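step=encode ok
step=design start
structure_in=
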């Protein structure tokens, strides 16, 4: 997608693998099973956690990707 001019952000809990496959913009997710949230949190806290992760991804999209 980056080569087509569409910025991409990879949200993952396994950052080393994302780097290994060449992802340029990476945001650390919460865990393997629930990357975007935490099922153990109360609903409002999980909603805020998800919002924080999405906002981090949006911020990452504002940055230029390194040239390949």
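sequence_out=
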């Amino acid at each position: 997608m980056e080569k087509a001019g569409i910025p991409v952000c990879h949200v993952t809990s396994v950052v080393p693998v994302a780097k290994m496959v060449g992802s340029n913009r990476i945001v650390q997710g919460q865990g393997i099973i629930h990357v975007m949230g935490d099922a153990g949190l109360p609903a409002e806290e999980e909603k805020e956690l998800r919002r924080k992760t999405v906002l981090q991804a949006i911020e990452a999209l504002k940055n230029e990707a390194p040239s390949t």
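step=design ok
step=annotate ok -> The two ends are 13 Å apart (CA to CA).
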